[in-house]
């Protein structure tokens, strides 16, 4: 199965030349490290930067240059920095071609829960609700199961929802799955992972058609 970097590497293959892409907190931030050299993608962070690059090397961090998750980042040539009002105008105006988000749960009809666990303190919902309400192309990067081994791909989310019927594709450490009207459709399996393992780890409706190819990472 994949680790977090493997998930990010697989999602990087989804990027198209010339796209503007928002990367959420967690695994999605790793995607910037794996963009193919022949693909020009401009990364946006909702705290107000367009043109994020990979994470800086140790010792080269700039504490004033951070993403929405407060991680230090790099800025590519031509990058620009602006206020949150401008940043969310980009998002709400649908000027972002792809959004990559982490999630605690995803349902088989495309609902996502990624901002709050009841009883735990949160600093705020951040920009996720604007992103899921405005973006047409949302990919979720997540682990297939939680630390107890329970599926995070469900028939119905149990946590407070961030968005309804908005997720298009999910990439986990086990598989790539598309959201359809009939549930999760298995597209690819991670190296060394069997279809049965994916089936046993998925609580939501799962569609399996024909031979399922292995991811190419």
Topology overview:
Layout: H1 4-12, E1 20-23, E2 42-45, E3 49-52, E4 75-81, H2 84-92, E5 98-102, E6 105-107, E7 112-113, H3 128-134, E8 138-141, E9 153-154, E10 169-171, E11 175-180, E12 183-189, H4 195-200, E13 206-207
Parallel strand pairs: 1-2, 1-5, 5-8, 6-9, 8-10, 12-13
Antiparallel strand pairs: 2-3, 3-4, 6-7, 10-11, 11-12
pLDDT < 50 runs, ≥5 residues: none
Q: In total, how many beta strands?
A: 13
Give the full name of the CATH homologous superfamily: Glutaconate Coenzyme A-transferase
Strand content: 15-25%
- The N- and C-terminal alpha carbons lie at a distance of 11 Å
Please provide a written account of the structure:
- The protein has 217 residues and is an alpha/beta fold.
- The protein has a single domain (4-207), classed as Glutaconate Coenzyme A-transferase (3-Layer(aba) Sandwich).
- 14% of the residues lie in helices and 24% in strands.
- The protein is built from 4 helices and 13 strands.
- The longest helix is centred in the N-terminal third of the chain and has 9 residues, at 4-12.
- The protein starts with a helix and ends in a 10-residue tail after the last strand.
Throw out a few tags for this protein:
Glutaconate Coenzyme A-transferase, alpha/beta, 14% helix, 217 residues, 10-stranded mixed β-sheet, 4 helices
């Amino acid at each position: 199965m994949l680790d977090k970097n493997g998930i990010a590497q697989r999602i990087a293959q989804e990027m198209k030349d010339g796209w503007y892409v928002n990367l959420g907190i967690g695994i999605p931030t790793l995607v910037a490290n794996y963009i193919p050299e022949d693909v020009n993608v401009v990364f946006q962070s909702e705290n107000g930067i367009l043109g994020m690059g990979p994470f800086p090397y140790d010792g080269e961090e700039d504490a004033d240059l951070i993403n929405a998750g407060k991680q230090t980042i790099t800025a590519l040539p031509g990058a620009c920095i602006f206020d949150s009002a401008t940043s969310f105008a980009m998002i709400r105006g649908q000027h972002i071609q792809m959004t990559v988000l982490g999630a605690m749960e995803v349902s088989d009809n495309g609902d996502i829960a990624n901002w709050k666990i009841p009883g735990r303190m949160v600093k705020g919902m951040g920009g996720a609700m604007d992103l899921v309400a405005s973006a047409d192309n949302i990919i979720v990067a997540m682990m297939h199961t939680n630390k107890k081994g329970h599926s995070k791909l469900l028939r119905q989310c149990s946590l407070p929802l961030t968005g309804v019927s908005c997720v298009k594709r999910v990439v986990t450490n086990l598989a790539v799955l598309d959201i359809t009207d009939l549930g999760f459709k298995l597209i690819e399996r991670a190296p060394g992972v069997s279809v049965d393992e994916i089936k046993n780890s998925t609580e939501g409706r799962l569609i399996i058609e024909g031979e399922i190819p292995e991811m190419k990472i």
